[in-house]
Known about the structure:
Elements: H1 6-14, H2 18-25, E1 29-31, E2 34-37, E3 49-52, E4 57-60, E5 66-67, H3 69-77, H4 81-91, H5 98-104, H6 109-126, H7 132-140, H8 145-150, E6 153-156, H9 161-166, H10 171-176, E7 191-197, E8 203-209, E9 220-222, H11 238-248, E10 250-254, H12 257-265, E11 271-273, H13 281-290, E12 293-297, H14 302-317, E13 323-324, H15 333-340, H16 342-350, E14 353-354, H17 355-362, H18 372-387, H19 392-406, H20 410-416, H21 441-455, H22 457-466, H23 473-489, H24 494-500, H25 505-516, H26 525-553, H27 557-576
Parallel strand pairs: 10-11, 10-12, 12-13
Antiparallel strand pairs: 1-2, 2-3, 3-4, 4-5, 6-7, 7-8, 8-9, 13-14
Helix pairs in contact: 1-24, 3-4, 4-5, 15-16, 18-19, 21-22, 21-23, 21-26, 23-25, 26-27
Amino acid sequence: MARIDDETIRKIRESNDIVDVxxxxxxxxxxxxxxxxxxxxxxxxxxxxxxxxxxxxxxCFVCGATGNVITFVKxxxxxxxxxxxxxxxxxxxxxxxxxxxxxxxxxxKVEYDIFKLATTFYxxxxxxxxxxxxxxxxxxxxxxxxxxxxxxxxLSLSGGLALSLSKKYDKKKIIDLGLARxxxxxxxxxxxxxxxxxxxxxxxxxxxxxxxxxxxxxxxxNSKETEIFKKGKILYNFYRAKDIIRKKHEIIISEGFxxxxxxxxxxxxxxxxxxxxxxxxxxxxIIKNTKAQVVLNLDQDEAGVIAxxxxxxxxxxxxxxxxxxxxxxxKDADELIVKSGSEAFLKAYQNKVNFIDFELDYLKSGKDxxxxxxxxxxxxEALEIVNNIEDDILRELKIKSISxxxxxxxxxxRSKIKKVEVKSPSKESxxxxxxxxxxxxxxxxxxxxxxxxxxxxNIITYYENNLGYLNxxxxxxxxxxxxxxxxxxxxxxxxxxxxxxxxxxxxxxVLKEVSSFEHQDEYTDEEIEDYVKAxxxxxxxxxxxxxxxxxxxxxxxEEKKKLADRIKNMxxxxxxx
Length: 577
């Protein structure tokens, strides 16, 4: 892939104000000329991330995370730099084809291309005369042509896909991706094809549904898992829904893709689906990153209820209290809307219940609460749930509710409630802030010089004329990169320079080190001179140590004398400073 030119990157960055973008991810508070947010890159509890609208950069004073709007999206979304550019170019409505470059740069370019062609193949089929019965079936289910196009719904016929793909791609690859059998016959025959896309919008699989009667075939055939399709890492429709989720600050989790499609038809688009798989830690991380309220909209049968409880508990462990949609007369939201209309679902949605209330109510199942032994069992089980509520106010309300419901003293209930211990972060949660390393005056001088160089072009010139080096290798590399950037572009912009250092971890680490240090933008000439003096002193001390070691190891008397004189002269020079 040809490198995306600097002008394009700059245009995308300048078209996306960092405060506006980060504000779509995190609540911001303005203090003075900067904005502050809880840092999402470590286990932060109070706002330690500063966002400068003037400089278009962010930095965390605790963990040292720093960057511009592009690197924030990259790190928050856990995507590549190029994918972040694509997201932001789309957000700004720029006519820049970053997506094409993203796929060309992927190690799975062939796999993505194959599924993209398969999607087009199936979509073309449904619009032919052979697709009439499938279109009639979809029409009866109120899945219009517009909806078919929006969700990339197509049709497999008697075959032809594998043969078409084999003219361009390796046959084994087509078979390995699950699009053909060993004899190169199509896997999907006479099925309506629902395209599955990953969290970034790339087609990676299909679910094929029968639409004819009198068949013993399974209702659905789903793509097998491959390197690019892992159900435990994908939420169906997430790539379409994520912007709406952030605007609404709410995400609805459903069980299957038909619920997503059906809710879209009634104007609800902040919906994702698990595609019949278990809720995984990867799913949880995706949900956590949205910072949205969670609404569980799973099937209403026993399996769906159990899944709701399991997911709700996983969310609770991360401090996320969800709500649950409950209704009767239908297995899922798709069936409810088809049978009873959109009003039935909207009413259930408006009457959604808190997850804790849902779980407490479920505990009553199979118990006769007119019997003392069942009441005792219920209360003990309920208190286990209440005991895990971290919110003090919510826990207090549940204690009072149970006390009132069963006429048991609050004191007795509290005596059985253990104080909830603060949970340590899970392996998948944000890492804790790194322990601050104590720095000597030499390190502090180098870090401070770099900060001022990054934020004041005049200091770059001063550095070149009066110092020209740093003793720490990686810091020296960063200083040299700053100078190279300024020479190349005849100016220096910190926000653009961050892109210049992209994918150079040694420089990114130094930027973090610089950002985690407490800095003032103001400085005096005397302060700069002190830093330069300290850095020069350290260099001379290192040279003295080297010469001293060399003097110890030589047996030549004259050489020893020469080295001793050099060491003496250098020490005298240092004293003059």
